Amino acid sequence: MATTTTTTPPSPDPAPPMQPVQTLRAAPPDADVLGAVETALATHRAFGDSGYIRDQLTIAYRRRLHKLGSALPEAERLASALDTAPPARQRQLLGDTVLRCAVQHAMRQLHLGDEYGLPLPQCAALFQGAREHLRAGLAGGPLVAHLPAMARLHGEGSPQDEDTYIWHAWQEGTPSARAFLAVMEDNYGAPLATPTPQERALLRRGLRLLETLLPRLTASALSHVQLIALFPKLGTWRGKASSSQFRVNGSVFLNQELIGNPWWLAEHLLHESLHQKLYDFRHGHSLLAPDYARDDGAKVCSLWNAPDDDGNHYWDAHRALAAFHVYVHLALLCLLAERQEAALAPQYGPIGQHMSGSRRAIDRARYLGEQLLGTTWPELGLAGRQMTHWLLDVLDALDTQRRPSGATLHLLLDLYERQSRKLDSYLAQQPPPQSDTLDLQAEQEVTMTRQALHILDRELPPSTHKQEQHWPQARQSVLQALWPLTEDDKLMERSGYPQAQALIALMVQQSSRQLAALGALG
Predict the structure, then answer these.
(1) Residue 206, exposed/middle/buried by CB under 10 A (0-12, 13-18, 19+)?
(2) How far is the C-alpha of 484 from the C-alpha of 209, rounded, in Å?
(3) What is the pLDDT of residues 357-374, one digit of tens each?
(4) Residue 127 placed within a domain
(5) In the chain, what is the straight-line distance between the N-terminal and C-terminal CA atoms, in Å?
(6) End-of-domain residue from the set 398, 423, 454
(7) Predicted confidence band at 317 (pLDDT cuts at 50, 70, 90)?
């Protein structure tokens, strides 16, 4: 089963502005702790060292090519050539998205009997082309071989051997490019964009910011990415901010309209590159149980995502672990960004709402780590279990104000607040519906909130009664009443807290579905 990780665009600024009721910034640990954490995330022998991870990946792919060799001589010849190539050349060639797809697709067809992906004759031709590329001593892989020097992410003067490239559509006529576009059509069914000179400059500006904040970790994560592509707001790309797929290894995709803010771009470059690092690790290690993707496999509810009828807010073990892996790293990134914002703002502007925020990243990482330990533990392989424990140790070093185990109210209210902003924007753009829907929903949310507070011997502010018939204002009163509960550790120890938390969860989920039905979520 494929695993797709997609981030959604930030919501537009509300109108009129809402008063913030939570902080997205955590109390940071000492600077030496942050430095030690970056070193660990970039160099840990098993889970951080990109050289080791990529070497294990090349072993796995060479083994697969030899296995294909009995049916496809081109695969055997490529495998033999790789066996004697220097490790750096092996890593470069097997970082190629199309070559990896050709190996995986051929394995599916020959060993599982599936009609899947690129046809076998095309796979054989790609193996032959990769062997010729290797023998010619060309840098990178065949997919990026015909891209111009200006397409290098680090700029035209950068070393070729380990560079990441930016997709340009004018090389569509090569065999690798045709195969890449076929893979994209199968997996996304939407076009890619050729970046303008200005967009290339924006990508490099975001990269410079990321390298300023996390130089070692940036180099590690980007070494797993051979191609970055921009996508327009068309087709299945609508509603996406960035994306990665396990089935499209080595390439990441960014929303063309959102790369203008360097803080946003730095976070999403790291985010998607880390997914590729984990995908590479998975190819060479027992990250997951063999049957983790079965229909009845354990799943984690991502409480900060809107519920829908397709259950997209329930994540299998791979997606939960991938998100956990990213959020631990984003916690470090945001802590450093917040610490250095004053010094960097003259060049890059203020952070504003363009990053996740360290508190949010820590909270989501903590929840996912707990869920991996408790809910999806049977679906993890040995390496996946060891990685989970290690990442929790890293998180402990970053989280200086740890919440009680099992607390989820803050995650629910994160969704509720973000959707309140969307409701404000929605109502500011068109007249409200000609029905009592908004009034009834406001009344229901206030009633359920009052019930939850009563369980904990708390009350809504007296002024709330006057606002019950005005949904946006009622939601603000609900937030003002509930956020303090997320910071009261003693309150969380009370016997009625789980019941109150469950009632609020029901309220938030029902509200989210009503907003979706109204069309307010975009």
Answers:
(1) buried
(2) 35
(3) 999 999 999 999 999 999
(4) yes
(5) 28
(6) 398
(7) very high
